[in-house]
Write a structure and sequence with these properties.
Helix content is 37%, strand content 21%.
């Protein structure tokens, strides 16, 4: 049984979440703390916890303050945040601080089933992440420098930079761990990048505006939440609006964004494959596809279809730097990735491949 710590100032929510977790045969609530300070005291005495579920809005110490103090105390337990608040800014901040997932508290009985399902999925993901970190620690202790270098080279495809003038587009997809990963990518891209950027981050309605605003503050390029009819311009990143599928269409001399309001795919809206499918009918000379951290395989089918219609170049984040090595792994295992690299290399690789104006 994996051990879980629940932190929430509401006794009713502590009991409800604990009951949900304890109904499984995989997880057990070791303790339910009424605030983050009490949670920290429990962690200090119990180093074998597997997952923490933590509320954001609490007295004495908020969930955000809790996330900030964990690295200082060398606590590396995966944290899932949940909140009844609609404050998307706090949610984005929590993800930037290292929370692996956020879950909206149910507002009524109709949301109860979805809430339970999201808790179970988040717990499975958290345990998978913790086990991955243990494997890497063990591998680093066993591997010699030469062996590590050889393994890293084996997972890279050949890289040839082509910065000749041309009409190019960068198309990025990411999911779990994406908000934090994007802080290591978009701020490093120069303002005079020779291409527009379209980006699908799996996120519900109401959150992508705050994500775009935060990344815009950090970046040299302009970052905005995509709007219906936006004309794609070089040096601008358009983030798909939560609750809408983003598509790109050719319109005369320009390319513009149109929303697709078809149902979610696998519970996801926006969905990266839909964006990639739409790019098949564009007139870009080359499309640089970037697949970052995320659960599942979104992006793989779309990129495969796109490769049949357009000249593309595919960059996939490597396993070691991915929060969840699902989406980039799927692209790599299908043989679609041209270059596999750590998160700190992604921006430079995009820039060198696209060029600057």
């Amino acid at each position: 049984m994996k051990k879980v710590l629940v932190i929430d100032d509401s006794a009713l929510m502590r009991r409800a979440v604990s009951d949900i977790i304890n109904r499984t045969n995989k997880y057990s609530v070791s303790y339910a703390a009424c605030n983050a300070l009490e949670g920290l005291d429990f962690i200090a005495k119990n180093q074998d916890l597997d997952v923490i579920l933590c509320d954001i809005d609490m007295p004495k110490m908020t969930g955000l303050e809790f996330l900030k103090v964990l690295p200082e105390k060398h606590i590396h337990i995966p944290v899932i945040i949940f909140s009844s608040s609609e404050d998307s800014k706090n949610t984005i901040t929590a993800l930037e601080l290292g929370a692996i997932e956020f879950i909206k508290k149910p507002s009524g009985s109709k949301d109860k089933g979805l809430f339970e399902d999201r808790i179970y999925k988040a717990l499975d993901m958290a345990v998978s992440l913790k086990e991955k970190k243990v494997r890497y620690t063990e591998n680093k202790e066993k591997d010699s420098v030469c062996e590590k270098e050889q393994r890293f080279e084996e997972k890279k495809h050949s890289l040839t930079f082509d910065t000749r003038k041309g009409n190019k587009l960068v198309a990025i997809v990411c999911s779990t761990g994406g908000p934090k990963a994007l802080q290591s990518v978009l701020p490093k891209i120069p303002a005079n990048i020779n291409a527009p950027i379209v980006l699908v981050q799996h996120m519900p309605a109401g959150f992508t505006g705050s994500l775009a605003a935060r990344l815009n503050d950090l970046s040299h390029i302009r970052v905005k939440e995509a709007a219906e009819g936006d004309i794609l311009q070089k040096g601008v990143c358009y983030i798909a609006r939560g609750g809408k599928h983003l598509t790109v269409v050719h319109d005369g001399k320009n390319h513009k964004i149109l929303f697709d309001d078809s149902p979610p795919v696998g519970g996801l809206k926006p969905f990266g494959n839909i964006m990639y499918y739409s790019l098949c009918d564009t007139v870009y000379d080359e499309i640089i596809c970037v697949v970052l951290t995320g659960m599942g395989a979104d992006g793989t089918k779309g990129i495969a279809k796109l490769s049949e219609n357009k000249k593309i170049y595919v960059i996939a984040q490597d396993e070691e730097s991915s929060t969840v090595y699902g989406m980039p792994k799927a692209v790599y295992e299908k043989g679609l990735a041209d270059y596999v690299c750590g998160l700190n290399e992604v921006a430079d690789t995009i820039t060198k491949k696209v060029g600057v104006r």
